[in-house]
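User: Hi! I'm working on a homework problem where we have to compare a predicted structure to a textbook description. Could you give me the structure for the chain below?
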Amino acid sequence: MAAVSVHQFAQCITCHAWSPDHTMVALCPNNNEVHIYRYSLDKWEKIHVLQKHDQIVSGIDWSSMSNRIVTVSHDRNSYVWNQEASEWVPTLVILRLNRAALCVQWSPKENKFAVGSGAKTVCICYYEQENNWWVSKLIRKKHNSSVTGVAWHPNNILLATTSTDGKCRVFSTFIKGVDPRGSGTSVSSDSKFGEQIVQLDLSFSWAFGVKWSPSGNTLAYVGHNSMIYFVDDVGPSPLAQNVAIRDLPLRDVLFVSERVVIGVGFDCNPMVFAADETGIWSFVRFLDERKISSSTSKYGSQFSEAFGKLYGQTKQGFWNDAIEPSRPRGGVHENCINCILPLKKAGDAIVKRFSTSGLDGKVVIWDLENQTDISSYL
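Assistant: Happy to help. Predicted structure tokens:
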């Protein structure tokens, strides 16, 4: 099993984010507050409670360069928090939403951040110096349902989104006066704000977490149908493949390198996926080996096996003895994992440590340093 460090912070954690030096963690204990803990003298100490939202905080991101925290909530509001002396001071963000804000992420250059919402809208927010506030430009009429995930391309222009309409989309977020000309790739350099670069109709169920690879050449996202999707050459002619898992659906994903992805979700156990030399992705193993998986399990794109695992039946409706019985859930995490974040220094190409949090109220730090079978793919 990968080396782990487990910290019980609450009964349930909605989301979490790390300070730039990874000595502090901000988390929402499933209410309208954000608690900030600092590691000192071999223990975690609560040092701040951010109180401004009226409903559950659904997203947190802590910028690595400017040391600012952005939060979003079901109350349809967002705040950018700046540390002044020993206090965190909020600045209101003008979102203009009529439904809950669900997720948030700073752009790589930290001059913008994206907010997904239940209003079928994505808000691209930027700072107006003359008014001393954050305003937003909206990407409307593109999604048919709630936006559940946002992910910035390394070029700071392209933004990938997932939605409960089952689709993954990529947009241009170029804002005149905020982004310099020529900052995009050939795909996005001539695109206007809000222009849809590609729409991926790979999932026929809710789509959740989405991430870009470090180079931005590959996009990964997950569906509620126990599938994970990998897309190369995002643009007019993308190359896509999927991997079906025989376990519960995933909620979020993380590229630890160009060829290795960690998926987390309802199975309470991080799952490792890797691409071989030909670019074919496959399931490798569960990271928490206390959950023993059958050596005869076959992971692929066979829907019949996945549904057989879920219902205990074959596609034709008869009992299938070849399908393994359900395994006991749990291990380090005892409930759904809903958030996964890298723990790396700026400039590092490979993520060797990452953290997860979930509905069991734990934040777990995982170390891949001595995982020889995974290291061969890194």
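For your comparison, note the following. Residues 121 and 133 are 21 Å apart (CA to CA). Helices lie at 303-311, 372-375. Good luck with the assignment!
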